[in-house]
UniProtKB/TrEMBL annotation:
It catalyses: Ca(2+)(in) + ATP + H2O = Ca(2+)(out) + ADP + phosphate + H(+). InterPro entries: ATPase_P-typ_cation-transptr_C (IPR006068), ATPase_P-typ_cation-transptr_N (IPR004014), ATPase_P-typ_cyto_dom_N (IPR023299), ATPase_P-typ_P_site (IPR018303), ATPase_P-typ_TM_dom_sf (IPR023298), ATPase_P-typ_transduc_dom_A_sf (IPR008250), ATPase_P-type_domA (IPR059000), Cation_transp_ATPase_P-type (IPR050510). SMART domains: Cation_ATPase_N. Its main location: membrane. Belongs to the cation transport ATPase (P-type) (TC 3.A.3) family. Type IIA subfamily. GO terms for cellular component: plasma membrane. NCBIfam families: ATPase-IIA1_Ca, ATPase_P-type. It is found in: Cell membrane. The chain crosses the membrane at residues 62-80, 86-102, 253-271, 277-305, 717-737, 749-769, 790-813, 819-837, 858-876, 896-916. This is P-type Ca(2+) transporter.
């Protein structure tokens, strides 16, 4: 088999390509052959830069500025003969490095898993079955189907091209889409054909902008045209979130502050008669204490783990910074079909000539009857009904398939259950089921010789809102069968089949049809119109506009698409959380409004705006309206962009969903672009920040909730780490200013800072959300991370921790002025305990009493392990000389517990009082809100 990339595939006829690649233009490859080829050719991927090896990640932990200072301190200790200090500092640096390494490796792993989840898929036919597989598993010879919105997954020779247009700017720089065909190119000019003119090939990485097609894969991975030019594709860039960038900046300021403080402490210490070396080490330790070196790593871990939680709730984050923006979302604009509704359509009504038929049955099971005025009737009883059913069946790309599953009962008796499924668009699936109910056949039927064949398809798009097929009958006559949005089809019709007669479509008949459409739409039905015409002098490839006109309207079909069960409560949650919900749909105004009412979106004050009304509005007028509109109906994807801009101009942070290729601009412009995982096109997914694995609205709300939680958790451990650092600095600072002996020895400061703090901070990063997370208004995007009182909490709690530690030290020293080691041990343990108690306070923005202490198991274990470590350092004989500690008595412990508890409990009582006041305020505000809805 020859699959060399140099081969000029465009010079071969489609059949020759299929043969050369030992494939099959109808069945594709067998699974087994595909596996064999995959092993031979490798994955269909562009080579990425190598990932950083683990040892490099480990070494990176020691590149820090703070670690550098510590190394210098170690060297100085070593040269001054303080070997024990030098070794201990090194040991602490290594333990800290290992902790950092574990965190980073964990974050890296989950982000890698995320990348794999978001990788592209391809529609492939193998053994005659169509399925979606990861594009990386494609092999030469695979038969691939292309649709508008797909990114072409490999280089392909096209076998079919139905108005297929591909935008190849990734490869050729030319942004005007190229119309593709399947004709082989003239061999004479073969050697000079540039890529842009190889019209029968589709190239990896280019984008299908319209039509449909299929082709045989001729090259994969680095053998493709894009592989040849992009020899090395950089692994997706690591983007820093705005918060990470801000924290990095803050880190720089803290370095300067730390150095200044260090100098003050050293000078004050030496002034009061302390040894220069001791003061130097103390200064260095303090500098280390002041720099929150653990912060960036923990932020990354908190983001990565949060993102993992989102995956578990079916939301895949494509762009990390959006995790922060999610919590600020103030409007969620959502598609209707499939996101708010189940996208499980069932036809319930058929109407023509003022006669309404009801169709029974549910789901995709092709069993049901037609009723007219309460009586069962034959679906072939009149010509118009038969014609509607014919169009429903033929102007359709969906397939109805039946899977049989055999089960055996306890007695070993076999039973077969049949499970009906739809492959393709659910709207079309429902029409296939309707046709099957009418004819009693679920698949192809009749004598193929007598059947008409499809010559061409004018694919559905959401601007025209209709689809047609051209068929050639057994008699050689061409006809056009059309279905689509009722008004759209009606607008292109000039005649109507009314009471069995072909009649001109008069204004009153037109009005009658529209009236009926509204009536059905008012029952939350999706209403489609059906029409046909006989084509005279048909030529293939004629412009769509010249075909879809002068139609004969036949009738209407109404189908239900029930709302998703979980959507109602998700919308309720949004309202509680101060998030406005908006429906944007291509569907009929009345259908959209009826569904919006069912799911609790129209809270009595929502307006409905149609696409054509929107067209007549200036941007300013739209911005004014946008505040009140709840449902946008009959809109095209282009309208979505204007809606996003209008809402943004009013200060909203907008989340916008989309699936089709034309939705990409709106998704990109919105603050949080959301793509559908199941029905979404590659182009939309690539533009999106978030992909919904289940296309479900409730998943967006879950992601917002997680987004809020992640941000809150980041605030929690920033608060914990910084308050701890402030406490450590202040205890030393005050002691020096008051002329006291050193309350903590340098090794103890390092230990507290690098070892005891780390685990509890990490555990805060995965803390459960506070009960009222979704009862708060969305956060302001410009809010400072220290906003809403966080800065004050850090300083006040830090001050109390420092002051209480110093008090415990001073009381112990006063009792026994000759035993400095004892007093220092008490100060050391008080500091550790105060922080370990304070960590529980950090879980709540109100007070420690607002939350169950044992809820976060990781935190409980982290605190226990930090406690065990500190007890070890105090009581193990061998460690006492290293950490300059001594055994503590019960009396010491009593003092420690009282002093270390004060910062948290004093603040806790304050918090309870304050939250009581704000609760009363909230109740008052909410009472006012109920009077005047926002
Ligand atoms: P949403 O935008 O919420 O997903 P939608 O699915 O109704 O709603 P579109 O896909 O743009 O939006 O469809 C617009 C209209 O086009 C539908 O209301 C329906 O009348 C019609 N329509 C939808 N699918 C088809 C199809 N396969 N063939 C013909 N007409 C269709």
């Amino acid at each position: 088999m020859d699959t060399q990339p140099i081969r000029k595939w465009y010079t071969l006829a489609a059949a020759d390509v299929t043969e050369a690649l030992h494939s099959d233009a109808a069945q594709g490859l067998t699974q087994q052959e595909a596996e064999r080829r995959l092993a031979k050719h490798g994955a269909n991927q562009l080579a990425e830069n190598k990932r950083k090896p683990l040892y490099a990640v480990f070494l990176d932990q020691f590149k820090d500025f703070m670690v550098l200072i510590l190394f210098i301190a170690t060297l100085i200790s070593y040269f001054l003969g303080e070997y024990l200090d030098a070794i201990t500092i090194i040991a602490i640096i290594i333990i800290n490095g290992i902790l950092g390494f574990i965190q980073e490796a964990k974050a890296e792993r989950s982000l890698q898993a995320l990348k794999e989840l978001a990788s592209p898929m391809a529609r492939v036919i193998r053994e005659g079955q169509i399925s979606m597989i990861p594009a990386s598993r494609l092999v030469p010879g695979d038969l691939v189907v292309l649709e508008a919105g797909d990114r072409v997954p490999a280089d392909m020779r096209l076998l079919t091209a139905n108005r297929l247009e591909i935008e190849e700017s990734a490869l050729t720089g030319e942004s005007v889409p190229v119309a593709k065909n399947v004709k082989k190119l003239d061999t004479a000019q073969a050697s000079t054909v540039p890529l842009g003119d190889q019209k029968n090939l589709a190239f990896m990485g280019t984008m299908v902008t319209g039509g449909t097609g299929s082709g045989i894969v001729v090259a994969t991975g680095m053998d493709t045209e894009i592989g040849k030019i992009a020899h090395m594709m950089n692994a997706a860039e690591e983007v820093e979130t705005p918060l990470q960038a801000r924290l990095e900046q803050m880190g720089k300021i803290l370095v300067v502050v730390a150095l200044l403080l260090t100098i003050v402490v050293i000078v004050a210490g030496v002034w009061h008669g302390h040894e220069l070396f001791t003061m130097f080490l103390a200064g260095v330790s303090l500098a280390v204490a002041a720099i929150p070196e653990g912060l960036p790593a923990i932020v990354t871990v908190a983001l990565a783990l949060g993102v993992q939680r989102m995956i578990r709730r079916n939301a895949i984050v494509r762009k990390l910074p959006s995790v922060e923006t999610l919590g600020c979302a103030s409007v969620i604009c959502s598609d209707k079909t499939g996101t708010l509704t189940q996208n499980k359509m069932t036809v319930t009504h058929v109407w023509h000539s003022d006669s309404t038929y009801e169709v029974t049955g549910s789901g995709y099971v092709p069993e049901g009857a037609f009723h007219y005025q309460g009586k069962m009737v034959s679906p072939t009883r009149d010509g118009a009904l038969t014609q509607i059913i014919r169009i429903a069946d033929r102007c359709n790309n969906a397939r109805l398939i039946c899977e049989e599953q055999g089960t055996r009962n306890l007695l070993g008796m076999g039973k077969t259950t049949r499970h009906w499924q739809i492959v393709g668009d659910p709207t079309e699936g429902a029409l296939k089921v309707l046709a099957a109910k009418a004819t009693g056949h679920a698949g192809e039927r009749g004598n193929p010789k007598q059947q008409s064949v499809r010559v061409e398809e004018l694919p559905f798009d959401s601007d025209r809102k209709m689809m047609s097929v051209v068929e050639k009958g057994a008699d050689g006559v061409h006809s056009l069968l059309t279905k689509g949005a009722a008004e759209a089809v009606l607008a292109r019709s000039t005649h109507i089949l009314w009471g069995g007669q072909l009649q001109p479509l008069t204004a009153s008949l037109r009005h009658r049809v529209l009236e009926q459409t509204e009536l059905m739409a008012g029952q939350a039905l999706r209403v489609l119109g059906f029409a046909y015409k006989t084509l005279q002098g048909y030529r293939p490839g004629q412009p769509i506009g010249t075909l879809e006109n002068n139609l004969v309207f036949v009738g209407l079909v109404g189908m239900i698409d029930p709302p998703r069960e979980e959507v109602r409560s998700a919308i309720n949650l949004c309202h509680q959380a101060g998030i406005k919900t908006v429906m944007i749909t291509g569907d009929h105004k009345v259908t959209a409004e009826a569904i919006a009412r069912q799911i609790g979106m129209m809270r009595g004050y929502g307006e409905v705006l149609e696409g054509r009304e929107l067209d007549g509005m200036s941007d300013e007028a739209l911005a004014e309206h946008a505040e009140r509109v709840t449902v946008y109906a009959r809109v095209s994807p282009e309208h979505k962009l204007r809606i996003v801009r209008a809402l943004q101009s009013k200060g909203h942070v907008v989340a916008m969903t989309g699936d089709g290729v034309n939705d990409a601009p709106a998704i990109k412009t919105s603050d949080i672009g959301i793509a559908m995982g199941i029905t979404g096109t590659d182009v939309t997914k690539e533009a999106a920040d978030l992909v919904l694995r289940d296309d479900n609205f409730a998943t967006i709300v879950a992601a917002v909730e997680e987004g809020r939680n992640i941000y809150d958790n980041i605030r929690k451990f920033i608060r914990y780490l910084l308050a701890s650092n402030v406490g450590e600095i202040l205890v030393m600072f005050f002691a020096m200013l008051l002329g006291l002996p050193l309350p903590l020895v340098p090794i103890q400061i390092l230990w507290v800072n690098l070892v005891t703090d780390g685990l509890p901070a990490m555990a805060l990063g995965v803390d459960q959300a506070e009960a009222d997370t979704m009862y708060q208004r969305p956060r302001n995007k410009a809010e400072n991370i220290f906003g809403r009182g966080l800065g004050w909490k850090i300083i006040s709690r830090g001050f109390l921790i420092g002051a209480m530690t110093l008090l415990a030290f001073w009381l112990t020293l006063r009792e026994n002025p000759n035993d400095l080691v004892h007093a220092q041990t008490v100060a050391f343990v008080t500091l550790v305990m105060a922080q370990l108690i304070h960590v529980f306070d950090c879980r709540s923005q109100y007070s420690v009493f607002h939350r169950n202490v044992f809820e976060n198991k990781y935190l409980v274990w982290a605190v226990i392990s930090s406690l065990v470590l500190v007890i070890g350092v105090v009581y193990i004989d061998a460690l006492q000389p290293i950490f300059k500690t001594t055994d503590l008595s019960l009396r010491d412990w009593a003092l420690i517990l009282v002093t270390s508890g004060v910062p948290t409990f004093v603040a806790g009582i304050g918090g309870v009082l304050a939250s009581g006041r704000s609760q009363a305020g909230r109740e008052k505000r909410s009472a006012m809100r109920t009077v005047r809805p926002d």
